[in-house]
Structure formats: structure tokens, C-alpha cells
Amino acid sequence: MYTVLAIIAAVLFLIAWLINAAEVSTNDIFTSTNVMLVGLALLALHVAGIGSGWAGRGRRR
What we know:
Transmembrane segments: 37-56
Order of helices and strands: HH
Keywords: Membrane, Transmembrane, Transmembrane helix
Distance between the termini: 25 Å
């Protein structure tokens, strides 16, 4: 559950690549560049630690 943002980013990169490779005509909002930028934003949030869940305060003995 800790890598959800990274997995979503990878899926968005795959979708952006497919749109670009297949030369699918889309509207102005759903272009391969915009999908890739959303994926990059999610990847940046993952690297920053957002969405990684609560950090434990230490081990209980």
C-alpha cells in the first residue's frame, strides 16, 4: 500500500506512451503530454513521501 502513487504514475506513463505511439487523436486536455505531467506529479509526491502512510514512532517491546 506504500507504493500506490508510484504504481499510478507508472500506469499513467504507460497510457501516455500508448497515446503517443498509436498517434491517437484526443481532446486538448487528454493529450499524452498532460497525462505524462500528471504521472510526473504523482511520482514527485511519492518521492516526497506523500501517501506513504503513517510513520511509526518506534518499536514497542
